[in-house]
Amino acid sequence: MNPQDGPPADITDLLLDAICTVDEQGHFLAIRGACEAIFGYRPDEMLGKRMIEFVYEGDRQRTLQAVDRIMDGYLQRHFENRYVRKDGRLVHIMWSARWYPEDGVRVAVARDITHRSEAAAMAETLPAADTGPAWRLGSAPPRLVPPGLSAVPLSAQDHTVLLALATGGECVRRQAIVKALGEDYLQYDQRRLDTQMRRLRRKVEQACGLQLPVATVRGVGYRVYQRIEVCD
């Protein structure tokens, strides 16, 4: 390449961000840059589809509200939401976007800030790890035994969720729990998992007066902050 010729046409492939162009209805028209690195999809797998289809369900309403502002002429900077990658993981995106009415397109630059968001969530919401007595999770019959207390009976689904938490490390992603339940993460209604966790926490607290030692990590999953040992 002759330096005097300037950069090659595919220079955007070197970008760490993705540059997205969508039409007035929100269909992807073009994606350049780090598309596959950020979203897990090749550009051709996203073209022609509505951007909102890839947004995490819990973020769709405020994303559409942001789109309305952009379409009204507002230059959007530093808007954050979550997309569902092709592999089912959530990716935190920071967007800057502008509507070009003369061309009938909206152009947005997407940056992956997942690691920063996860670190912030961990720092803000998680209690310190507890090195005290462990809880015990049994399977025959399904039960959870708090330290020094009687067993709390569990349903098969409760046991599956707790087993995924007990064996998944300190921070367990939502995808891992959905997979353990035998469900397709991309098709799974995330509200079901949230309801399951609230019900499980309430069951444990009502049965033994203790809080289930599982904290929510926003946008990521759950962290077990007191050991749960698997027995039987």
Q: Kindly state the percentage of residues in helix.
A: 25-40%
- Please write the CATH class name of the largest domain: Alpha Beta
Task: Characterize the main sheet.
Answer: 5 strands, antiparallel
CATH topology of the largest domain: Beta-Lactamase
String of helices and strands: EEHHHEEEHEEEHEHHEEE
By secondary-structure content and strand pairing, the structural class works out as: alpha+beta
Q: Approximately what portion of the residues adopt beta-strand conformation?
A: 25-35%
- CATH architectural group of the largest domain: 2-Layer Sandwich
Total strands: the figure is 12
Query: What gyration radius follows from the Cα positions, in whole Å?
Result: 22 Å
Distance between the termini: 66 Å
How many separate structural domains?
A: 2
Number of helices: 7
The coarse overall form would be elongated
CATH superfamily annotation of the largest domain = PAS domain
Average pLDDT taken over every residue:
85
**pLDDT < 50 stretches:** 1-7
Strand order of the largest sheet: 2-1-5-4-3
Pfam family, one: Trans_reg_C
Domain PAS: 11-74
GO molecular function, one term: DNA binding
Keywords: DNA-binding
